[in-house]
Amino acid sequence: MRSIIKPTLNRQHGFTLLEVMIAVFILAVGLLGLAQLQITAMKFAQTAELRSQATLLAGDILDSMRANQADAHAGHYAISLNDASPSTASSVAQADIAAWRTNLANVLPAGNGQINCDTFDPLIEFRCDITIVWCDITTDNCSDADNADLSSIFISGGI
User: DSSP alpha helices (H): ranges in 68-145?
Assistant: First the structure.
C-alpha cells in the first residue's frame, strides 16, 4: 500500500514570523542592557576623573604650604569646610587658600576643602590633613546642600 504524505508547509503558516519577533525582542533587551552598561561605565569614568582632580588639588595646596613653611607652621593655612574663603589676600597663605578654594569650586562640582594641621613641634614631622568634598555625578542629591550626598578624599602630608 501506498501512503500519501501531506505537505506540512500549509499547517506551519506564521510560525517563522513568531520566532523572528521573539528573537528581535531578545536582541532589544540585550541592547538595552549594553546601553545601561555603557552609561554606568561613563559615570564611573567621570567619578575617577573627579577623584584624580581632587587628589591633584590636595597635592597643590600641600606644595604651596611646603613653599611657605613659616605660615604653615604658624597655622595660617587652617580652614574648615564651613569657613568662607579669604576675600582679601593679606598674606601669602590667604592668597594660596583663596586660589585653592577657587580651583576646587571650578574643577569639582560643589567642590570645597579644609586644612587641619598639627601644632608645630620642631622635634617631630609637621603634618597637615587635607579633606576635599564634592558632589559626585553618580549621586542625584546635590541641590540640597544640607542633605547632599558628597564624595570626599582625605590626604595627610608632611610639610
Answer: 69-73, 92-107
Q: End-to-end CA distance of the chain, in Å?
A: 105
Domain residue ranges in the chain: 51-158
Q: Find, among 49, 53, 47, the residue nearest to 136 by Cα.
A: 47
Stated pTM of the model: 0.76
Q: CA 18, CA 3: separation in Å to the nearest integer?
A: 32
Length of the chain (residues): 159
Could you report the per-residue pLDDT of 72-89, keeping only the tens digit for each?
Answer: 999 999 999 988 888 877
Q: Give the pLDDT of residue 34.
A: 96
Please check whether residue 81 is in contact with residue 110, taking contact to mean a CB–CB distance below 8 angstroms.
no
Give the 3-state secondary structure of residue 79: strand
